[in-house]
């Protein structure tokens, strides 16, 4: 049984201009100790889907799903109190902006020990010892002194290490990392990512890595889930996805990787992600898809089977060639 | 830190000089002088008027009067009241505890109600609760103090008979010598049964009246500050730890939201000390405000000048304390 199991997750925000569906029918299974990547452009609903799992969305968001289970428990029917017992202990999250994700009014030590105080039955001294141990684990020198520091005294990379330490504090079963390196300097990005991967390997914690860096995906994850405009459009084991992407969007995304480009100009995907007002009737990617047909523009696409990476497409690609669904099926 | 205090104190010196000048001039711009104010309609013989003016030094050129006054101030001499013939400082120190007691109670009332109201309104933004809190706050802010005071006296004291109408103490039933000047403390020290209750009862309405505007300001400030903070990433982090809503809002968010509120509270404290004038007059509260109003009608120049200088000094001191407090609650400044 998977650690995290999501079926048909949808999140709708009520906005002044009417409801906006930020996440539309996402499925995801994460096994214990597995590393799954979620990729997509900004606004594709990656973060929102995972915030929904954490229960951290604002009140304007409405979450619905056929199944939303973590560790055998249905997150949709849990009371807020029961859910808080899971969140922060078994299920932790690392955010994109480490500098603003730490509370400026409290010391680093206070913020690390706080989660332990809430969830674990440890004495004050034990919590302090564990906090020191955690800072050592994430590679922060002079941990005792650093615990007394305030967040504004730390660099971005340091802050993200603290965030990682905080996430690890209660020995979680699953960590969701929401673009943990995006806000950092390029030189620091690699360090933080290496740290995260090392800790994941060593502790065997499950990791959902939200990113838009395909290079990171290729190097790290076992499985990839590709999202576009709130929809999950493809999910495959990483090697399969890089070898033979089935959705035209995934294919275009991979073709835009600098290391794959053959010509002098880097290929790009024309157009932008549809917004609230300009959603196409059929496939959401059809306005930008070079394989789009009239069917694509008018009829929402069906989901393909596992052999075609669950691609949400009328004409999934096989070796770069569009297949008619009847033939593929 | 010490350097910071020193700099701030040094900065207040020009303020004092300007204040000294302004009060001195403004007081003399009011038509009439102390002698005329005292003789009133009866009139007075010109020779006698000149003699009395000479006694008070009012026949000197204004610039000389000012220099004499400034010289006295520099030596800690606030002058002697023309009316009571007692030193202004002495009179002020007797009356000030009453004002301070009232101001502190009003401030406590404003903070204890204002901050939770602001927090609740922010957490439940857009709700009926939010709208009602903000409407009441706006009403409180716009309410003329004297009218609000009279309304409360009419309804609570007269109609319901719940509280005394005016004064600090029920002098018919209780009498004791002031020790600290704070009625709440003195009534306890006196050991007389019921005296403390009477002191509290006398404080309720004036505190509400004086605290209404600060309450409205604090509630609105807390709400807007809280709304901003609730959207911050670190509040989401706190929730991601599985902390209770009470801890997330009451500790992680409020601690940050309070930073601007402390500034506002500080400014309001100054207003409370200086602005108790109306409230003290309505409730016949024997404090500094009432004394100043009376000094104006008596043209008691030294009392007015001294009183205003002393209140200003206290307001400046309070602001200095607030600045220090600000540093204490905001680590970013402390280590900045």
TrEMBL record, chain A:
**Residue ranges constituting the ABC transporter domain according to the UniProt record:** 6-254
Q: Which SMART domains match?
A: AAA (SM00382)
Question: Per UniProt, what is one GO molecular function of this protein?
Answer: ATP binding
Q: Where are the transmembrane segments?
A: none
Gene3D superfamilies, per database record? P-loop containing nucleotide triphosphate hydrolases
* Keyword terms, alphabetized: ATP-binding, Cell membrane, Membrane, Nucleotide-binding, Transport
Its membrane topology is listed as: Peripheral membrane protein
Q: InterPro entries from the entry?
A: AAA+_ATPase, ABC_Ni/Peptide_Import, ABC_transporter-like_ATP-bd, ABC_transporter-like_CS, Oligopep_ABC_C, P-loop_NTPase
Xref: SUPFAM superfamilies: P-loop containing nucleoside triphosphate hydrolases
Q: Which family does it belong to?
A: Belongs to the ABC transporter superfamily.
Q: What is this protein called?
A: ABC transporter ATP-binding protein
Question: Which organism does this sequence originate in?
Answer: Ancylobacter koreensis
**Highest classification ranks of the organism:** Bacteria, Pseudomonadati, Pseudomonadota, Alphaproteobacteria, Hyphomicrobiales
TrEMBL record, chain B:
Keyword hit for Amino-acid biosynthesis: no
Location(s) in or outside the cell = Cell membrane
- Top-rank taxon of the source lineage equals Bacteria
- Domain annotation ABC transmembrane type-1: ranges: 96-326
Do you know which PROSITE patterns this protein is assigned to? ABC_TM1
Membrane topology per the record?
Multi-pass membrane protein
Assign the protein's first listed, main location to one coarse class: membrane
Keywords associated with the record:
Cell membrane, Membrane, Transmembrane, Transmembrane helix, Transport
Q: Name one Pfam family in it.
A: BPD_transp_1
Q: Where are the transmembrane segments?
A: 9-30, 94-123, 135-156, 195-218, 257-283, 303-329
The answer to whether the entry has keyword Membrane is: yes
Return the similarity comment: Belongs to the binding-protein-dependent transport system permease family.
Entries under PANTHER family matching the protein? DIPEPTIDE TRANSPORT SYSTEM PERMEASE PROTEIN DPPB-RELATED
Which named protein is this? ABC transporter permease subunit
Protein source organism: Ancylobacter koreensis
The lineage, from the top, is:
Bacteria, Pseudomonadati, Pseudomonadota, Alphaproteobacteria, Hyphomicrobiales
């Amino acid at each position: 049984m998977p650690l995290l199991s999501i079926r048909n997750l949808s999140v709708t925000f009520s906005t002044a201009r009417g409801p906006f569906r930020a996440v539309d029918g996402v499925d995801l299974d994460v096994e214990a100790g597995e590393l799954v990547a979620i990729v997509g452009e900004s606004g594709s609903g990656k973060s929102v889907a995972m915030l929904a799992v954490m229960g951290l969305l604002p009140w304007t968001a409405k979450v619905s799903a056929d199944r939303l289970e973590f560790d055998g428990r249905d997150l949709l029917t849990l009371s807020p109190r029961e859910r808080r017992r899971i969140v922060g202990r078994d299920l932790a999250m690392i955010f994109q902006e480490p500098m603003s994700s730490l509370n400026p009014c409290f010391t680093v030590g206070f913020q690390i020990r706080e989660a332990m105080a809430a969830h674990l039955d440890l004495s004050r001294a034990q919590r302090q010892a564990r906090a020191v141990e955690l800072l050592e684990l994430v590679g922060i020198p002079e941990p005792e002194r650093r615990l007394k520091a305030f967040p504004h005294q730390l660099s971005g990379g340091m802050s993200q290490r603290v965030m990682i330490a905080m996430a690890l504090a209660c020995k979680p079963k699953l960590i969701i990392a929401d673009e943990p390196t995006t806000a950092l300097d390029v030189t620091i990005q690699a360090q933080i990512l290496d740290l995260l991967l090392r800790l994941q390997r060593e502790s065997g914690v499950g990791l959902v890595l939200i990113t838009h860096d395909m290079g990171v995906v290729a190097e790290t994850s076992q499985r990839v889930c590709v999202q576009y405009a709130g929809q999950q459009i493809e999910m495959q084991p990483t090697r399969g996805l890089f070898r033979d992407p089935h959705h035209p969007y995934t294919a275009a995304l991979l073709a835009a990787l600098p290391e794959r480009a053959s010509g002098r100009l880097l290929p790009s995907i024309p157009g932008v992600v549809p917004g609230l007002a300009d959603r196409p009737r059929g496939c959401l990617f059809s306005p930008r898809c070079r394989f789009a047909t009239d069917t694509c523009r008018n009829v929402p696409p069906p989901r393909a089977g596992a052999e075609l990476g669950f691609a949400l497409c009328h004409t999934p690609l096989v070796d770069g060639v569009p297949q008619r669904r009847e033939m593929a099926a | 830190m010490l350097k910071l205090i020193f700099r701030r104190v040094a900065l207040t010196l020009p303020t004092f000089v300007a204040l000294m000048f302004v009060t001195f001039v403004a007081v003399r711009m009011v038509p009439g002088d102390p002698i005329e104010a005292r003789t009133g309609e009866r009139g007075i013989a010109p020779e006698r008027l000149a003699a009395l003016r000479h006694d008070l030094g009012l026949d000197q050129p204004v610039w000389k009067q000012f220099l004499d006054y400034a010289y006295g101030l520099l030596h800690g001499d606030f002058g002697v009241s023309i009316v009571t013939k007692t030193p202004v400082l002495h009179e002020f120190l007797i009356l000030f505890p009453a004002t301070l007691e009232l101001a502190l109670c009003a401030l406590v009332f404003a903070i204890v109600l204002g901050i939770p109201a602001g927090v609740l309104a922010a957490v439940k933004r857009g709700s009926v609760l939010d709208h009602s809190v903000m409407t009441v706050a706006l009403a409180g802010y716009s309410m003329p103090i004297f009218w609000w005071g009279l309304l409360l006296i009419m309804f609570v004291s007269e109609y319901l008979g719940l509280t005394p109408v005016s004064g600090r103490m029920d002098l018919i039933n209780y009498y004791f010598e002031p020790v600290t000047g704070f009625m709440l403390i003195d009534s306890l020290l006196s050991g007389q049964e019921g005296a403390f209750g009477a002191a509290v009862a006398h404080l309720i309405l004036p505190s509400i009246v004086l605290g209404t505007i600060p309450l409205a300001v604090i509630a609105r400030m807390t709400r807007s500050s809280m709304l901003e903070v609730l959207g911050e990433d670190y509040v989401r982090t706190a929730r991601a730890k599985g902390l209770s809503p009470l801890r997330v809002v009451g500790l992680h968010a409020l601690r940050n939201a309070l930073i601007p509120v402390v500034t506002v509270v500080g400014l309001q404290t100054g207003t409370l000390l200086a602005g108790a004038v109306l409230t003290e007059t309505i409730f016949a509260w024997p404090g500094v405000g009432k004394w100043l109003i009376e000094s104006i009608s008596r043209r008691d120049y030294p009392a007015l000048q001294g009183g205003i200088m002393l209140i200003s000094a206290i307001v400046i001191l309070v602001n200095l304390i607030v600045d220090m407090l600000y540093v204490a609650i905001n680590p970013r400044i402390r280590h900045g």
